[in-house]
Design a protein that fits this description.
Layout: H1 2-9, H2 21-26, H3 34-45, H4 53-60, H5 62-90, H6 95-103, H7 105-141, H8 148-167, H9 180-204, H10 216-229, H11 235-241, H12 247-276, H13 296-329, H14 337-357, H15 361-388, H16 392-418
Helix pairs in contact: 3-11, 3-12, 4-5, 4-10, 4-12, 5-6, 5-10, 5-12, 5-15, 6-7, 7-8, 7-13, 7-14, 7-15, 8-13, 8-14, 9-12, 9-13, 10-15, 10-16, 13-14, 15-16
Length: 419
């Protein structure tokens, strides 16, 4: 308590010796403050994968889909607690560094491969989504129905060569690093639109909806919901920057950010599915517009998301480039312009080619969630828990949970690959 009093003495928002609820809640966000950390962790977790949450609910039904979304939040809140304890134990506040300190060089490389594969897949998925959205916006003014696939490929290639080629150089990143906030605004906007328009959709036609579905797609539903909560690389940074860093304060950040994310996911997932039923598309922005004509509400959302995903390709290129350089040149590599540009543009143009060949964003989400997110975000934290925990029964249940989630992820990844 002495530490807390000392901190309060410096607080300019103190009211009569004790800040009231209004002041505590609405004071300016300071770097590393509790609220800023909650928002940072939430923004790391919430992203383009949220657009497929309504489709995930469709695959499993309202009740089971909601259970999956709650389960995802609970599982990740638990795993983030494990990560916090591990970071405190080794005193290293990067994920890769912590894994190396606990398990050695081999597991560090396994993690780097998973994270590199995940980032590369994100580049592909982002290019697929923003090209589709740009095409949808252009389709309002021009008839593109006869040559849709040609124009889609032309947009991906044009943006890659004309916009992303100069944008993926680090000196450009300072001007776009806040673009991810646009995605959060767009997703909040989509949630509001879905909730407000729900009564009108139901008055037009009551769609066919299911409470429970147990089928092959149910596994994909679980994988998609797990993918939506991952923020494993961002969590250590949030913890490192947290003021008065401690396990207790970080658990508040974890619980509240996962809770906020779950509320938003459940809102978009259930309302989107109830509105559209079995016609719910893979991305909620592609919904059937019951009022006829142009769905200007979703056109606005598509524009905002397209802008942030173009910036997101450049933002994700930096950690991808660093990861590849560390894998092949060592952790303490010396900067080399040739390797720098080779890795950058090889990753960009290869991901562009794959995005042209595979136009389904949902396939990337299922494949990434199964093959890379589950090992890096669930299996490795399970191993960390195994090392920290001494209770045999708890270790058994953790091993069982990790094995189950791993098998589910592999099934989803390889079924997507085969299809």
């Amino acid at each position: 308590m002495g530490e807390y009093v000392a901190l309060r003495d410096k607080d300019p928002f103190e009211v009569a010796g004790e800040p009231n609820w209004w002041v505590r809640t609405f004071r300016p966000l300071g770097p590393g403050s509790l609220r800023a950390s909650i928002l940072s962790l939430s923004s790391n977790a919430i992203g383009a994968g949220l657009l497929s949450v309504a489709y995930a609910v469709k695959l499993s039904g309202i009740l089971l889909g909601t259970i999956f979304l709650v389960l995802g939040a609970v599982i990740f809140a638990f795993y983030y607690r494990i990560m916090t304890k591990a970071h405190d134990q080794v005193r290293v506040y990067t994920y890769v560094g912590m894994v190396k300190a606990m398990f050695g060089e081999t597991w560090r490389r396994v993690l780097e491969i998973c994270l590199t594969g995940l980032l590369f897949g994100i580049l592909c998925a982002f290019q697929v989504i923003f090209s589709q959205y740009i095409l949808d916006i252009a389709g309002i003014f021009y008839d593109l129905s006869g040559n849709y696939e040609f124009y889609r490929r032309l947009i991906i290639l044009g943006v890659s060569l004309g916009v992303l080629t100069p944008l993926v150089i680090p000196k450009q990143l300072t001007s776009i690093r806040y673009a991810s906030s646009i995605c959060i605004i767009a997703i909040l906007y989509i949630a509001v639109v879905l909730v407000v328009q729900l009564p009108f959709y139901l008055s037009h036609e009551v769609p066919e909806v299911y409470l429970f579905k147990v089928q092959g797609g149910t596994v994909d539903s679980l994988t998609l919901t797990i993918f939506a909560y991952t923020a494993m690389t961002g969590m250590p940074i949030v913890y490192q920057e947290l003021q008065n860093r401690s396990y207790k304060r970080m658990t508040k950040v974890i619980d509240r950010s996962m809770g906020l994310s779950a509320i938003l996911y459940i809102c978009i997932g259930t309302v989107g599915y109830i509105s559209l039923g079995e016609t719910t598309p893979e991305l909620i922005t592609d919904r059937f517009y019951v009022f006829g004509g142009v769905d200007w509400y979703m056109i606005v959302a598509k524009f905002l998301i397209a802008v942030t995903l173009i910036a997101g390709v450049a933002i994700n290129m930096n950690p991808l480039r660093i990861g590849v350089q560390q894998m092949f040149l060592g952790v303490q590599y010396a900067h080399n312009d040739f390797y720098f540009y080779l890795i950058t543009y090889l990753a960009l143009y290869t991901s562009t080619g794959i995005a042209i060949l595979i136009p389904s964003a949902i396939k990337y989400f299922k494949f990434l969630g199964g093959l890379f997110v589950i090992p890096s975000s669930l299996l490795l934290p399970g191993m960390i828990y195994f090392k920290l925990e001494t209770n045999p029964l708890k270790r058994f249940f953790m091993a069982l949970l990790s094995l189950l989630l791993g098998l589910i992820g592999l099934y989803s990844a390889f079924s997507t690959l085969v299809s």
